[in-house]
């Protein structure tokens, strides 16, 4: 199985779909290679393409705020996207582009082995639950292949619709609660094993 650094190099050099032709930089993702919590957005935008880093524009600043609201920094988690190259004019990625790029995401998940995956928005949600609507299933944890999937609205949604800001903040608080849940007794089939840190408000998963 490829390690994260090998994957990073492959993604940077990838020419497996047409998106590579218009990119300045591919954006493999970044963060803790052993993160218990992984965020998956849609695809790089203008700023991300320029810098080769995920979520560094306005939506990323909001994501940073949301992370801090639950006691985390971006270095504590891993952040990546469904497609690693910017779609022209920030259009939605085409299904063929998502499927061409999917093996990188699969390999990143296999390398990191997160306990909780947060799909941000409908494109990432569709990777696990293609028939569901993000507005119906947001902030509801479900187990898939032994990993807890906790879908959330994409942070950019709050930039387009200010009323969603409070909704996203409240959903993030629920994510914080999920991470603080005490570990279930072994074998009871509960989805996550994130031990609460004794004597601290902080989660022990990090
Ligand atoms: N939106 C995304 O989906 N991903 C990024 O990296 C930035 C904005």
Please outline the helices and strands.
Layout: H1 4-13, E1 30-31, E2 37-41, H2 46-51, H3 58-69, E3 78-81, H4 95-112, E4 116-119, H5 122-128, H6 134-137, E5 142-144, E6 147-149, H7 156-160, H8 164-180
Parallel strand pairs: 2-3, 2-4, 4-6
Antiparallel strand pairs: 1-3, 5-6
The structure holds uracil.
The site of uracil has 13 residues, from helix 3.
3D structure, described in words:
- It contains eight helices and six strands.
- The protein is α/β, with parallel strands linked by helices and 206 residues long.
- The protein has one domain (4-180): Uracil-DNA glycosylase-like domain (Uracil-DNA Glycosylase, subunit E), CATH 3.40.470.
- The chain has a six-stranded mixed sheet.
- The longest helix has 18 residues, at 95-112.
- The chain is globular, with a radius of gyration of 16 Å.
- The two termini are 24 Å apart.
- It binds uracil.
Q: Care to give the gist of this entry?
A:
The protein is of the alpha/beta class and 206 residues long.
Distance between the termini: 24 Å
| CATH fold-level assignment | Uracil-DNA Glycosylase, subunit E
What percent of residues adopt helix (DSSP H or I)?
25-40%
Order of strands, widest sheet: 1-3-2-4-6-5
CATH class: Alpha Beta
Average pLDDT taken over every residue: 91
CATH architect. name:
3-Layer(aba) Sandwich
Order of helices and strands: HEEHHEHEHHEEHH
Mass-distribution shape: globular
Q: Provide the CATH superfamily.
A: Uracil-DNA glycosylase-like domain
Structural class: alpha/beta
- Unreliable runs: 188-206
Q: How many separate domains?
A: 1
How would a textbook summarize the main sheet?
A: 6 strands, mixed
Number of helices: 8
